[in-house]
Amino acid sequence: MKSTYSVIFYMKKEKARKDGTYPIFGRITIDGAKSHFSCKIYCKPDIWEVNGGHAIGKSLSARNVNTQLDAIRGKINDYYDEIMRRDGYVTAEKLRNAYQGLEFRYNSIMTVFEQFNEDYEKQVSGGLKSATTLRKYKAVYKHLGEFLQMRFHLSDLSLKEIKPSFISDFEIFLSVDKKLKHNSVCRYVKPVMMLLHRAQENGWIVRYPFSDYQIHEEEAEKGFVTKEEMQRMIDCPKLNAKRTFIRDLFIFCCFTGISYIDLKNLKQENLIVNPVDGSRWIHYRRQKTGVDADVKLLDVPAGIIEKYDGLCTDGHIFNVPEFYSCCSIIRTVAKICGIEKHLTWHQSRHSMATVICLSNGMPIEVVSSVLGHKNIESTQIYAKITKEKLGCEMDKLSKKLDGIKEFKNCKHIYK
């Protein structure tokens, strides 16, 4: 491919400087396209070889000019190789911009993504972001690298070369080649869209390329633990100490609505007492949303705190194991208790919204505040009416209808 590529130098004889020298310019030619640039080098015309594009003679001036020109040619060749490895092709303008420092060395998608993940990991280390989200970003980074290799035979791609079809092609790759379900595809596509938005905000690209692309998650059934299943877990006698501890943490989350990461971050300072009535509360800021949440300590979670009081010496309330360990153990506990459903830790939060709060008449606005949601739409996704609650509400309706004269006599007609 280098047979179509050349760099030559020429003297631009428009206006001489006071010392009689003229500026030297360079010209990059690739596939017939040319791009010119100033070398910021000056030379006297009597030592300049027009055909060869270099200074002639053994004078100090001629040697200095040729040394600088050789250095420029070497840099341009290096940039050519780098761009070819990165993007798969080189243009004269792109090569000139790279030499002049006009092309961002930072503006390829894998480089930007890698830097984003590094910055996010620092925030995770500082307790500002979720480690689970970081794992998702790293998975997306891996899939994106595989997609570039398969689709473009490249290890990286310049942000400026990303076309509108890129994101839909990536969606197909995730669906067909990686066999991911629709909602997983949606969650993996959105970080790439976010990166391109950031690229536009930072001026790395002029226009966001995916403005006409849309993808939405399908509404999925949010599972929860029923009151009967919860009671079975609480009453389960055949558990060792570790399983008992994880079971207790799960039940604690069922009665507080606290997510795994907020449970792990929970400290003694988050336990407060209401000076008016002496009731105990948990006050904390959700790591995911940054929203403050207040949960009154009911008897069950209060008893769990007392049960493990003093066992954690670093200020935390519980010494919570790693996420995947907790998930694995709670599924084992569920199996021992005869619970067949696939249990996830987040279902404890669903259970708080559904079984503990809404089924017992708590208004959804209050539930939203307890869960630390930014808006009530988030709570509505969690909210499921249990059969028990549905039955109670229908009984209330029946009683109200009996009290209305027009409806009171209707039932006798159909007897």
Compact summary:
This protein has helices at residues 60-87, 92-100, 109-125, 131-152, 165-177, 182-201, 227-235, 241-256, 260-265, 299-307, 323-336, 347-357, 364-371, 376-382, 387-402, 405-408, 410-413, and strands spanning 5-11, 22-30, 33-43, 48-49, 54-55, 271-273, 280-285, 292-296. It is mainly alpha-helical.
**String of helices and strands:** EEEEEHHHHHHHHHEEEHHHHHHHH
Uncertain regions spanning at least 5 consecutive residues? 411-415
Sheet of most strands: 3 strands, antiparallel
Mean pLDDT: 85
DSSP E strands, number: 8
The portion of residues forming beta strands comes to 5-15%
The largest sheet has its strands arranged as: 1-2-3
Rg over CA atoms: 34 Å
What is the number of helices?
A: 17
Instruction: For the record, give the distance between the C-alpha atoms at the N and C termini, rounded to a whole number.
Output: 92 Å
The rough form would be described as elongated
Classify the helix fraction into a percent range. 40-55%
Strand pairing plus helix content: what structural class?
mainly alpha
